[in-house]
Amino acid sequence: MSANVWNQLNARRYQPSLPLPPGFDKESILKTLASLSIDGSATGELKGYATADCERFLHTLALIPENAEGELLEIGSNPYFTTLLLMYFRPKLSLTLVNYFGGESFESEQVLEYVGFDGQFHRQTLKYLNCNTETTPLPFEKHRFDWVIYCEVLEHMTQDPARVLLELKRVMKEGAQMVLTTPNAARLENVVAFIEGRNIYDPYSGYGPYGRHNREYTRHELHQLMVHCGFENAASFTANVHDDIPGVTPESMLQPVLLNIPNREHDLGQYLFSKWLNTGNASSLKPSWLYRSYPADALD
């Protein structure tokens, strides 16, 4: 893609400015995230992840008010970048962490070592629940949580994403809020890839079926799914958090198509950022646009 394609189609023109905690810049936030080691692991792979997605973590944090309090459930907390931001910048929240590393459900812990946002070295033990939320009910009572963080997990579901959302709804208080982020299937770099004959689908992963993106969503699809599951939208935008994958398609070819589709310029970002209120009634049926090969009376 030519360098000047970003003049009109760059998602950064239409997304919120990068939200930063007072007194911090991106570099100081990244310094802490990039220093993280889990159970004595080397920081190399985590450092690359933190560097590439630091802006995503900051946009996610900003969807939770500075004065937020109560109980927060974070699904897929490992590798704890968002967790660290929440603990330091949203200290009134009590965090419950869930991961899935395979096998049956069990409680465990991981040891984190990092240079904190205060500049000091920290060694901290975090407890978490190992649970496959797609197949196993969460061991929490109804209406327990004030907040849910469900970030970069939805796209990994292999069988029944609506079931997971309904289970999260069950443990949320009436009016509780969910912050949900997921890759945008209709992002600009995917549009360009298809035009140029490149595949957009995720490679098979050495971490198994949950280690890859099994189904990504467009902004409209995410809205459909969440409303179907009884949530009301409170915030929604797409955003780039790093440079797009380059292509060779010129700007002059893309602009007449994309910029003449109403509001399409707002839907080209790499990630979908959204916040949802637990206020609606959920359907017990599966949305027919997302599921197939089910009995007719099981589909909406």
Describe this structure in words.
There is one protein chain. The protein has 300 residues and is α/β, with parallel strands linked by helices. It has one domain: Vaccinia Virus protein VP39 (Rossmann fold, 3-Layer(aba) Sandwich), CATH 3.40.50.150. 26% of the residues lie in helices and 23% in strands. The chain contains eight helices and nine strands. The protein has helices at residues 6-9, 26-34, 44-62, 81-89, 161-171, 188-195, 219-228, 251-258, and strands at 37-38, 70-75, 93-99, 106-115, 121-130, 145-151, 172-183, 232-239, 271-277. The protein has a nine-stranded mixed beta sheet with strand order 1-4-5-3-2-6-7-9-8, with helices on both faces. α5 (161-171) links the parallel β6 and β7 (172-183). α2 (26-34) packs across α3 (44-62) and α3 packs across α4 (81-89). Residues 1-5 have low confidence and may be disordered.
Q: What is the total tally of β strands?
A: 9
Number of helices: 8
Q: Tell me which CATH architecture applies here.
A: 3-Layer(aba) Sandwich
Structural class: alpha/beta
Percent in strands: 15-25%
Pfam families: Methyltransf_23 (PF13489)
Organism: Lysobacter soyae
GO biological process, one term: methylation
InterPro entries: SAM-dependent_MTases_sf (IPR029063)
